[in-house]
Amino acid sequence: MPDRRSINRSMFWRVLRRSIFANRGRLFVILLALGAGAAITAALLNLQVDAKRRITTEFRSFGANVTIVSRNADPGSTMPESVSASIPSDTSAGRIAKVLLLSTVAEVTPYVRDRERDPPKDLGKPFLAVLNGERSDKGEFPEVFPFKLLANGGVSVDAYDCQLGERIGHRFGVHDEEFLRLKVDDRRENCTVADTRSFGDASDDQVFVPLNVLQRLTGKSGRIGMIQLRVPGTSSQVNEVVANLQQKLPEVQVRPVRQFTEGEAQLYSKISGILTATVAVVLILTALCVMAAMTNVAMERKNDVGLMKAIGGSVRRVLRLFLAEAALLGLAGGLIGAAIGIVLSIGLGKAVFGVAAHPRLIVYPISVALTVIVAILAAYPLRRLVQIRPASVFRGEE
């Protein structure tokens, strides 16, 4: 013979199944409310998690967020190029992009060169321009100096490549594949205009050349004027890197660009706060909808509860039955709704950020768990059934 515990367990699930499917219309309403709440919750939570990545990516387009300069306040002061060797290449948040810079004002003369005859022919009058000598690893320059390539096609001809800002190239009529003669004091260098770039800032009025070229022009071999970094991560992660560099490099000044690091943190904090508040409101509204449906359930279940208590059902067992019913409904609504919500967040991310949000798997169990909790809390009206007296129910008094 089956033992008493297995009989009770079988009876428990039979009563629970009958209780859930007794009124299919009400079941649909409760599942709809829980599913809708889970869908909105999952969508907003996924956007919230993905927002940090999107904001970090957007702020990266502004360029460097940390600068390293000499402690000497005199204009044109420099520091040893070897300082860059103490800068780590990676952090816990990703790779650090680094550009070494040296700047000066030089006389620039555009010219054309005929391979079959000398001397070269000048195209225009000399003009003064800011020269930036730069050195960076492949792919790091665009992260520190974001730009849009306007033209390309320049090829070096026994000279060095250089890049022009958009405005200076337009102002002096300099085009790709033309040559520039650079002069500082009595030193001269030549370079080929490899491409024209739009930086969207003061760099559009400047000329970029290799660092070693400018070091020769200025006579500052092994010296640099500035190091600009693009440090990935949150504001706290960037500040941690800055603090470590300040401790490691006491002979220079390491300065975070506060507008970027703090602005990124504040923007994410505001977006996160709004989304969290919206999730809380959605869960409260979902709980109220389910609570209204559960109130009707409590009124319909009086006779059932009275009968269970009359044949010896304990208060704890009755409560367990109703809590199990609420939890199962919350689980079903959460599983379906959370899956829909994560798919929905992809479209919302594209509408808000212009790029589809990446589905975050951690959001799914969290949304399901929140929906189950809401369903259990919304079953509060069923507690009234515990106080029902069987005799009063059978006499029609309750």
Question: What report would you give on this structure?
Answer:
The chain is α+β, with helices and mostly antiparallel strands and 398 residues long. It has 2 domains: 4-58 and 265-394, no CATH class; 66-256, no CATH class. Helices cover 50% and strands 21% of the residues. It contains 11 helices and 15 strands. The strands form 3 sheets. Strands 5-7-12-9-11-10 form a 6-stranded mixed β-barrel. β5 and β6 (121-122) form a beta hairpin.
Summarize the structure in short.
This protein has 398 residues and is α+β, with helices and mostly antiparallel strands. It contains 11 helices and 15 strands. The radius of gyration is 35 Å and the shape is elongated.
Write the layout of secondary structure elements.
Blueprint: H1 4-21, H2 24-60, E1 66-70, E2 79-80, E3 90-91, E4 94-95, E5 97-112, E6 121-122, E7 127-136, H3 141-144, E8 148-152, E9 160-165, H4 166-171, E10 179-184, E11 187-198, E12 206-210, H5 211-218, E13 223-224, E14 226-230, H6 235-248, E15 252-256, H7 258-300, H8 302-310, H9 315-353, H10 363-378, H11 390-394
Parallel strand pairs: 7-12, 9-11
Antiparallel strand pairs: 1-14, 1-15, 2-13, 3-4, 5-6, 5-7, 5-10, 5-14, 8-11, 9-12, 10-11
Helix pairs in contact: 1-9, 2-7, 2-9, 2-10, 6-7, 7-10, 9-10
